[in-house]
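sorry for the late reply, my laptop died twice this morning and i had to redo everyting from scratch. anyway the thing you sent over, i finally got around to it. pasting the sequence first so we're on the same page, its 474 residues, then the predicted structure underneath. double check i copied it right bc i was rushing
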Amino acid sequence: MQKTLLWFRQDLRLADHPALFYAAQAGQVLPIYILDTVHTRPLGGASQWWLHHSLKSLAADICKTGAKLHFFVGDPQKIIPQLCKEHALSHVYWSRCYEPEATQRDKALKKTLKDQGFIAESFNASLLHEPWEIKPKTSDFYKVFTPYWGACLKALEENPPLSPPPQPTEIQGLDVPCIPLEALGLQPKSPNWAKSFKPHWNIGEKAAFEKLREFCDHRIDAYHDNRNLPAVLGTSRLSPHLHFGELSPRQIYHHLHSQMQQNKGVDTFMSEIGWREFGYHLLYHIADFAHKPWKQNFNHFQWDTNPTALKQWQQGQTGYPIVDAGMRELWQTGFMHNRVRMIAASFLIKDLFIHWKKGEEWFWDTLVDADLANNVAGWQWVAGSGADASPYFRIFNPTSQGEKFDPHGHYIRKYVPELANLPNEYIHAPLQAPTEVLLNAGVILGKTYPKPIVNHAAARTEALARYKAIAMAK
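ok and here's the structure:
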């Protein structure tokens, strides 16, 4: 009977899990999780918090099958071959990751295992299509989303998601020294800054599928209209579940495919799944996409170094209420509404002229759905330096964006409560409010709420000049 080491990574579920399904079919399984401290980018604090609870849920689900999830910390290239040798395992299965460091690690590990006589196989568990599967006829990869997604849709096949194995057989008689989940050190301790996250999230495979079902049953029909309104629960909030693999995009597609091209909300939502796929497509095909601008002329963009302004942006103290509300939502919940992410990113890049990498690093540390491909693709899109990027002259006006997408100020009042008593006509621009209105609302600009740290009109003019300079440098 085949004895397989099953290495869980960003696939923390039992259903639609090819590596687990085929390992369980073939024989006995040893499930493990390794916190890689050597080869991959260290997780941000918010992601660590989510990972702890996701692993706790997965371990409980595996325990119900009669097996046990074993935890390790260190270098998978050393831990996995050693486990195979010590316990006479013949096969190693895992689900593919696509970050450059992860693919290099996995390639090296496969070679090591093969050289030592073991069989290693990897599977696609997190994308509708592998990044190399969808190809244009005239170039190596797609640089524009619309034709990419059109090609993806044509290539989609209705293959039902795999069921969880009814009873994965754990390898008997093994004494595998491992550590408890708590020893991974994923939870914040002193101070416990994540205590405000808990009311906002249910974590794990069961919670992910329940959220998908609730969204599809009650909110997806209005998704096209409501997805840009941060005060309305109009989005799915499935992104962290997708990132950690508590839910697969194939499960989502299977749940919705019969309504596609019939329901505008469904089509719009599925295109967002497409943008996720596109991010991985770009990360795979563009060398150093995570660190450098894809458009080479952006290497000459004039960035400013302004630690004070960066900190004000991080803390939600810019004097622009929609930006501040978003940054505070992020800190309090580990999440930020997607429309507000674009506004906040545009403000950092095109009003403060702070390098997009500083924003990407902050989001990496504070988002529970921090995902390298989509985080980098989003920031380069706003900066104008990525594939299919926002044009350089698209500079979000934070005041008018707030007025358009939070017209009654509900989102701002929730996360910037010091402005709660301002009337709607001034809540997006407190600086324009008459003194009497400010006094009646209990707002003292510069004390209870900051004055704008930059003049947007002047910053826009400067941004256009800086973008024109690099365009001329071509």
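Residues 127-160+205-285 form a domain with the Serine Threonine Protein Phosphatase 5, Tetratricopeptide repeat fold (CATH 1.25.40.80).
thats about all i looked at so far, will dig more tmrw
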